[in-house]
Amino acid sequence: MMLSWRMCPSIVKSTMILMKISKRKKTKKKEEEEEERDKEKGIWRGMKKKEKERDDDGEEENQEEEEEKEEEKEDKWEKGKNKKEQKEKWEKGERRRSRRRRRRRSRRRRRRRIEEERVRITGGLSLP
């Protein structure tokens, strides 16, 4: 069923709520069926939770170790990547200039441009 807000917002909202409720009921039924199967196998609720907790603890430790390893790999890769990029730039002649140097260059360019503009306008004559 396609729901659009043009129909009527209140109707759509109520149907969305009903859909959520029905979904909850379905999941609850599945959980109950799973519990029944577990009882048949001889596993009760508390035992299952303890096993899950043990598994979760082990999984969390493994995940943390894996994440740390991945971070280390990424750091190494980034360092290597940066070194390669710097080397390539150095070979091309592109160096990162300091802020002071860039400002000086831009000031010089600005002064030169202004001076050229003044000379062009006045025809080379400077005013006293």
Automatic annotation (TrEMBL):
Composition bias of kind Acidic residues appears in 56-73
Q: This protein's superkingdom?
A: Eukaryota
In this chain, composition skew of type Basic and acidic residues spans 74-94
Region Disordered: list its residue ranges.
1-128
Compositionally biased spans, kind Basic residues: 95-112
Q: What is this protein called?
A: Uncharacterized protein
Organism (species): Cacopsylla melanoneura
